[in-house]
Amino acid sequence: MAYSIQQIHEIIGGEFFQQARGGANKGQEGVRAVNVASPAGSTLIENLLLDSRRLIFPSTSLFFALKGPRRDGSRFVEELYRRGVRNFVLQGSPAEAPDQSTGKPARSAATPARSAATPARSAATPAKSTGASVHPVTAPAQSTGASVHPVTAPAQSAAAIPGHPDGSHSSLPDANILIVPDTLAALQRLAAFHRQQFTIPVIGITGSNGKTTVKEWLNQLLEDSFHIVRSPKSYNSQIGVPLSVWQLQPAHQLAIFEAGISRRGEMQRLQPIIRPSIGIFTNIGEAHSEGFDDIAQKAAEKLQLFNEAETLIYNIDQPETRKAVEAWSEAGSGRLAAQEARGAWSAGHQATPDSGQNAGTGVGPNAGTGPALLSWGKSADASIKLINTVKSEGWTTLTFSFEGNTFDFSIPFTDEAALENAGHCIATLLYLKQPVEKIAASLKLLSPIAMRLELKAGINHCSVINDSYSADLSSLSIALDFLAQQQQHARRTVILSDILQSGREEQQLYVEVAMALGQKKVDRLIGIGERISANAEAFSRWFPGQAVFYPSVEAFQKDVHRLHFRDETILIKGARVFEFEAIDRLLTEKIHQTIMEVNLGAMASNLSQYRQVLQPATRLMAMVKAYGYGTGSFEIANLLQFHGVDYLGVAYADEGVTLRKAGISMPIMVMNTENSSFDSLVEYNLEPVVYSLTLFKALDKWLKREGVPVLPVHIELETGMHRLGLTPEELTEALALLPTSVFKVQSAFSHFAASEDPGQDPFSQRQTEIYKQGIARLEQTLGYSFIRHIANSAGIIRHPEYQFDMVRLGIGLYGIDSANTHRLDLQEVSTLKTTIAQIKHLTEGDTVGYNRRGLGHEGTVTATVRIGYADGYSRRLGNGVGKMWINGHLAPTIGIVSMDMTMIDITGIPDVHENDEVIVFGKELSVSKLADWSGTIPYEILTGVSPRVKRVYFEE
């Protein structure tokens, strides 16, 4: 479902600062969404973009330059323009729109044309919609779709970007730029209009705790019955809700959105965007209380979400919740009393794809009277009564009574929060008239929602727990419990930001924090933020450990070397606004110790050698997986990007993330896609390989759940390698699933099993024929073309007829001719060096190394060098099998290779001293020779070099 830029202009108002030539949607029939190609000259918008790091499809994205206390989105306009975005909504005054006669910004403070308009009555808007948006829009007086400013300022002129904090000037030819007084309000207005186009049942969830869990569990419980759209993760804010609702598409049958607020007036803006037909009020508590006078006021504000709902579900056992709901219900004109809920439910409401025609529009059975109240709990007044609760070995059985029937439901949780969340879900499923047997079965399969705590290895033998997502008392308690569970280190450090929106008096708040830290036996607190620093006295009195404070992350980073992190568990706990991700990266940074030299000039030469044998139209993917075959990561990628390689290939998403963080912008294919990396794929614009039906289904399901509309993928076909890939039979099922998936197939490929072996050429040919059959079937189903590739480094040389659209250059890029063709002038790019730690002079009968395997004689001289099997030097190379190059001579190993050291026999080699350089492999001693000695292949030698070995890059 898409909108033209002209339609969006009519919806959100504002003025065109610049309109691309031909951008007016001529002949437009009013403001409405389109599902087919827009009229000639228009621009279709499918994606809303708020963060430049989330850009996937620039041509169909509309960037809202939001302004916040720490970031100004207008700073990223030029960057996004360079990356292909052509549609922008910027914040500014109407005076910044250009005068049409001069092309210069007008000086009059004209009022936006549609500032006082009434709601549009377009054909796509529900005919009986009475739930007018807080931000009403209208169609123009003439239904031509004509722009207020149909022409642009001259493309060559450099105009100040509206709202840019430094008054930046730039020329953005062929871009559509809309100016609005408030970009957030415009975003919300667009989302509210989009919501009006749908009449499906919508579940709205709010409360102080449990919103995300209830939403995710409802999805787990109902996904077999409905095609569901829901809020991604915890997208429940003023920004998150519009992005969640924007996911709505005609195929959806049920929507589940959560809403969170932190101050008065916010729910008034979210209610028209969600407009739920079914409401769930989880509870009322202390979270996010700072912006309200008291609990009652916060509850009243939250309950505004359900003003137009048909039914409100809540737990009647919570006194504050019950009090708030009853007060809100009584305050509403003509709202039904709570005891009438049973009758409303019994009237036969059932949420099906056909039953939601009036859902959320204010014209349902309770229009004008307010929602029916459907309560659950132990109270005698509950609509759905909880009769009994039995806990046993990680399970809880809940017995409910409703409409004269008794039901037993078992869930795999025992904590009170989970039981409350499950109660909301059970009440909702009963309201939706789901079969009781199905409810019982699905509840047993509930899985916990992933916690935001992340445990990983840190610097200097530390462990790092990253919880840099939120900071409040409740989540701090959870994080401290998790910290206490870690026993790998005796010492514990907590890095904590200001705690925001607690609703508590500040001094008392930090006294409680200090006491909690002491109770959990934390040894050191590092406080970051102005408020926690201002309350240092509370920690000096109530926290027995060491406490240091910094006003900002930047100040902490400058002083980190003095904090001496070593052999401890570190909890990083901060509100999102503090961006503690920088601290996480700092403390999990790896330290490299020894040296591998990488000749970038040699790599560029190898690339050129292979390009000489490619067809002019053949594209090239460079494989930089496994840390660039041991040579490095972004350093290699920078070179390849500079030389115009078309694609990069990595093994795992982590490798791609490293490249993205280092500024690599070219397409990256991830060969081994893992479920745990799905979020990284989207966040860092990585393109996964889909190699199995299981992965196909899991990834598609996750993307839909997270609200990702489209993701570029690569399909791997099994043709004879029998490693990864879809077999012809599996491809049949995949083809049936593709049309309803969110995948955009970028390429389909396979692997040669033995392209380097002339004796296996008939098998390589048979693989190619199977591959051709597969891509033909795929192309027929998709109806569009994609990149085809099967040839690897050896295949490029030995099978030029199989180049197809692209080839994958791997080991050959690093100077290794795996087919031994000697047709290209390749140079090995890597040199692994070490130094001599000590020289020993042996006598007759002396032994060397573990197990006394090395035997010395009178006059034997050995050198202990600083490399061992932990660095990647194989134990198979011990006892004279391997040799190292020193002072123009080969020195054999003596004794067993140790973890960090290896001994070599330097007897007879002149002028050798401690700390002299030793070549393990390089120009003088080929990595291929080392592979021969150890009975393996160059791939293993190169990729086996430990990450702790420092890489040094140079060009000759």
Oligomer: single chain
Summarize the biggest pleated sheet: 9 strands, mixed
Rg calculated over all Cα atoms: 33 Å
Structural class: alpha/beta
What is the tally of beta strands?
42
Unreliable spans are: 23-32, 34-41, 105-158, 333-368
Rough outline: globular
Helix proportion: 25-40%
* Helical segment count: 28
Order of adjacent strands in the largest pleated sheet:
11-12-10-13-14-15-16-17-18
Please indicate the percent range of residues in DSSP E strands (runs of 2 or more).
15-25%
Average of per-residue pLDDT values: 81
Q: Termini distance? A: 54 Å
Keywords summarizing the entry:
956 residues, alpha/beta, 9-stranded mixed beta sheet, 8-stranded parallel beta sheet, 28 helices, 42 strands
Polypeptide structure, described:
The chain has 956 residues and is α/β, with parallel strands linked by helices. The protein is 28% helix and 21% strand. It is built from 28 helices and 42 strands. The chain has a nine-stranded mixed beta sheet, sandwiched between helices. Strands 32-31-30-29-28-27-26-33 form an eight-stranded parallel beta sheet. A hairpin with a 2-residue loop joins β17 and β18 (405-411). α13 (506-519) packs parallel to α15 and α24 (728-737) packs parallel to α25. The model is unreliable at 23-32, 34-41, 105-158 and 333-368 (pLDDT under 50).
